[in-house]
Amino acid sequence: MEIIQIIALALLQGLTEFLPISSSAHLILLPIIAGWEDQGLAFDVAVHVGTLAAVIFYFRATIRQLFFDWLRSIQQRQIVGESKLAWAVIVGTIPVGLAGLFLGDFVEVFLRSPVVIAITTIVFGLLLGWADWKGKRNRDEQQLNWKDILIIGVAQAIALIPGTSRSGITMTAALMLGLSREAAARFSFLLSIPVIFLAGSLETVKLVKAEQATDWFALTAGAVFSAISAYICIFLFLKLLERIGMWPFVIYRLVLGGILLFIFS
Description:
By secondary structure, this protein is mainly α. It has helices at residues 3-16, 23-34, 41-58, 60-76, 83-110, 114-134, 146-158, 166-176, 181-210, 216-244, 247-264.
């Protein structure tokens, strides 16, 4: 991989993993548009490690509290401190884990085309805009009940379809359930941690089995650049979200989807 390809894909992964615009869509489309060879499985693993490191570092204090309260809740067999939110992250991950296990191959074979990405980019962009417009925004992530958590978890599973956006669809569901924009984003980011970890682990297993040659410079640079861009993205997104809302991302999705339909349909 050339250095420009490494930097561009790593920065793109870091920025789009947490914005509601679909990282998988952009990582599929950029090599097609730029005429690059596919970056390969090893590089995908590396940039996922970078984004995982960024979100864990950003929420390190929260994660530490959730983890210890979760352990105490198991020991005491009752909700302790922030343990309900920790259990919410675990339960909310189950639907996407099952969907990935049973539908992952189908998605890889049949749903990675630019036309599919264009349609999902537009449809789920409009849904995000509607949720941001109609949502009451009077609850936070601490007020989620188990039905809410399951709904958000099922929504996350839909994001296996390229162009949907994992962060976008989980924030959409959370906004529809009455969460504030910031609370919807925070829960979406926390929910991303086990998902990114599981996806990266699965890709690592495939990589080991494939026994591919390893370009350690490309992998290291990809992980570093994706981590930096992801951390900056999380910081700015949470800082500016209440002020700008979701509509800039909705408009971007509509424009991108329209261009893709024009080019590829």
